[in-house]
Amino acid sequence: MSHELYNAGHLYEAAAVHYQATGKKNFLNIAIKNADLMVKTFGDANGQIKAVPGHQIIESGLIKLYQITSNKDYLNLAKYFLDNRGNVENHELFGPYSQDHILVIEQDEVVGHAVRAVYMYAAMTDIAAIKKDTAYEKAVLNLWENMVNKKMYITGGIGSRHDGEAFGINYELPNLTAYNETCAAIGDVYWNHRLHNLSGDVKYFDVIERTLYNGLISGLSLDGTNFFYPNALESDGVHQFNRGSCTRQSWFDCSCCPTNVIRFIPSIPGLIYSKTNDEIYVNLYASNEATFELENNKIQISQQTNYPWNGNVTITLNPEKESEFTLKLRIPGWSRNEVLPGDLYTYADMLKTEPTLTINGEKLAASIKNGYFEVKRNWKAADKIELNFSMEVRTVKANDKVQEDRGKLSLEYGPLVYAVEEIDNPNFDEIMISASDEFTVQKEPILGGVNTLTKNNLKAIPYYTWSNRGIGKMKVWIQEKPTN
Question: What predicted TM-score, i.e. pTM, was given to this entire model?
Answer without folding.
Answer: 0.97
